[in-house]
Specification:
Layout (H helix, E strand, L loop, with lengths): L1 H15 L3 E5 L16 E5 L22
Antiparallel strand pairs: 1-2
Length: 67
């Protein structure tokens, strides 16, 4: 799986040139998993895309944090 993440990251790097990434897995409903199959989030990030990026993926899309 991590090899696939690396390959996908190379493709996104080349096409969109992000400044960084959030990469994560939610494992279990209490951890926020809503789709009950294994998947990895690869979220490209850009300087200034949100006011304060601290906390990682928890606030990457502020309007969708609580759903």
């Amino acid at each position: 799986m991590w090899k696939l993440v690396d390959e996908c990251k190379k493709i996104v790097d080349k096409k969109y040139n992000p400044d960084g990434y959030n990469i994560g897995i939610n494992c279990g409903e209490s951890a926020g998993q809503t789709i009950m199959h294994l998947h990895i989030h690869l979220i490209p990030r850009y300087i200034g895309d949100i006011e304060n990026p601290r906390g990682g993926v928890r606030g990457v899309i502020p309007k969708k944090r609580i759903y």
